[in-house]
Design a protein that fits this description.
Layout (H helix, E strand, L loop, with lengths): L7 H13 L2 H8 L3 H15 L15 H28 L4 E7 L8 H11 L3 E7 L2 H9 L5 E5 L8 E16 L9 E3 L7 E4 L6 H13 L5 E5 L3 H9 L5 E4 L10 E7 L4 E9 L5 H12 L6
Parallel strand pairs: 1-2, 1-3, 5-9, 6-7
Antiparallel strand pairs: 3-10, 4-8, 4-9, 4-10
Organism: Streptomyces longisporus
InterPro entries: LysR_HTH_N, LysR_subst-bd, WH-like_DNA-bd_sf, WH_DNA-bd_sf
Pfam family, one: LysR_substrate
């Protein structure tokens, strides 16, 4: 079925005249003179092939053809107005869908405050939140299956992505509460040399993994890794069983496990970064909105 080419001014003039049933009143409402209004109606009647209004002496009335066209004309104008409003809202970043990847540990730090602030500012935006470690987030950003990433220790070789640090935090030792070092307030890294380790696998966060290994190497030993776990919550749970010890970002202390002790480490100068990541080529206004929200400051930063 061919789509008719009906100029909007003709449809608008037709609907207004159908509501006023008076050429003079309709012309005044449209802000035009009466002859141009008559011309618009004539052109529309030529498209339809039938008269839409009676022109006999007396009141103007709709013909059967005009009565049939009026509901469709009103719907077309309403749908167009709704579509324009929706397009403007999406274009300005007020509505739409934003896909966010986040590292699980960030639920303990910046994520709640960020989501709360953003949802308050833009209630019409649907947030699709996906728990992902760093490497899968990078792949998802490049593959365009997420729009924003919140991750630890971004890589340096993803040149098509932009990164911005949103917080940094020190490392802590994660110990079973029964470990001899758990009685100390501060643990020297060299004291962990003989303890087995539970760590995240390098595949899920290469930079963070290498940073932890580097801390141990600088302290004079290579950690004996006996178990890997993808999430920090799992790492802590395995430490609680006595399987080993770990080094983790300080925010992990918010995981409350009775059998786990978190202790400051010496030297404690190294810090881990949390960054927001996005595609440099992405002009999605929702991404811009979220980055602006982060720039405004988050109440739950650790």
């Amino acid at each position: 079925m061919e789509r008719p080419e009906l100029p909007l001014p003709q449809l608008h003039a037709f609907v207004v005249l159908a509501e006023e049933l008076h050429f003079g009143h309709a012309a005044a409402r449209l802000g035009i003179a009466q002859p141009p209004l008559s011309q618009q109606i004539r052109r529309l009647e030529d498209k339809v092939g039938h008269a839409l209004f009676t022109r006999a002496p007396g009141p103007v009335t709709l013909t059967p053809a005009g009565s049939e066209l009026l509901p469709a004309a009103r719907r077309a104008l309403t749908d167009l107005a709704d579509g324009l409003a929706a397009a403007r809202a999406v274009g300005s970043g007020e509505v739409g869908r934003l896909r966010i990847g986040f590292a699980a540990s960030l639920a303990l730090t910046i994520l709640p405050g960020l989501l709360r602030t953003f949802r308050h500012q833009f209630p019409g935006v649907h947030l699709d939140i996906r728990e992902m470690t760093t490497a899968p987030q990078i792949a998802a950003l490049i593959g365009k299956t997420i729009d924003i990433g919140l991750l630890r220790e971004p890589p340096t070789d993803a040149t098509e992505l932009g990164f911005r640090t949103v917080l940094s935090e020190p490392f802590v030792a994660v110990l079973p509460s029964t470990h001899p070092l758990a009685t100390q307030r501060t643990v020297r890294l060299a004291q962990l040399a003989d303890s087995p380790f539970v760590l995240l696998p390098r595949t899920v966060g290469p930079t963070l993994h290498d940073q932890i290994i580097g801390l141990c190497t600088a302290a004079g030993f290579t950690p004996q890794v006996v178990q890997h776990a993808v999430e920090w919550q799992t790492v802590c749970a395995l430490v609680e069983t006595g399987l080993g010890v770990s080094l983790a970002p300080a925010s992990i202390r918010r995981i409350r496990l009775k059998g786990v002790a978190f202790r400051r480490i010496e030297p404690g100068t190294d810090r881990t970064r949390v960054a927001v990541a996005w595609r440099e080529s992405d002009h999605n206004p929702l991404v811009t909105r979220l980055l602006a929200t982060i720039n405004q400051g988050l109440p739950d930063r650790a």
